[in-house]
Design a protein that fits this description.
This protein has about 140 residues and is an alpha/beta fold. Helix content is about 35%, strand content about 20%.
């Protein structure tokens, strides 16, 4: 298993997906399924942080369609943490596969701190101080 999935805050408003070495596309499909299952347990809005710093996936239009199909009604913002050398590529490739029906396009950032700060500032997500101090970098 090339991933970890769990809640990123006590309020269960942020779900954290982290890829570990070695991770495969099958792991990505598993994470998409598990995330949908976890989000479906609640009715409140839940944001995602996806830590892709340990992988270099190239998503195809079929991958994107599968992810789209699994979206839940309560999925909020999607923050994808990538290595700095992948930031431009990820942003551009996301635009290539963008479809009018797709919602919640990912926001690409370079650190967990940046992802959490974005969610705090834009969506009022709260984190206890121990989570902020123990960032899983």
């Amino acid at each position: 298993m090339g991933y970890h999935i769990g809640w990123d805050n006590e309020d269960k408003t942020v779900l954290l997906q982290q890829y570990t070495d070695p991770a495969t596309k099958d792991d990505m499909y598993q994470l998409v399924r598990l995330s949908a299952e976890m989000l479906n347990l609640y009715s409140h809005m839940i944001h995602l942080i996806i830590d892709e710093r340990n992988v270099d996936f190239i998503f195809t239009s079929a991958d994107q369609a599968h992810i789209e199909k699994m979206l839940t009604k309560n999925q909020g913002a999607v923050m994808v943490v990538v290595q700095s050398h992948n930031l431009t590529y990820k942003t551009v490739s996301q635009q290539l596969y963008k479809r009018p029906s797709t919602r919640n396009h990912p926001n690409f950032v370079q650190s967990m701190e940046e992802a959490r700060a974005f969610l705090q500032e834009n969506f009022g997500v709260s984190y206890c101080s121990s989570v902020i101090e123990n960032v899983r970098e």
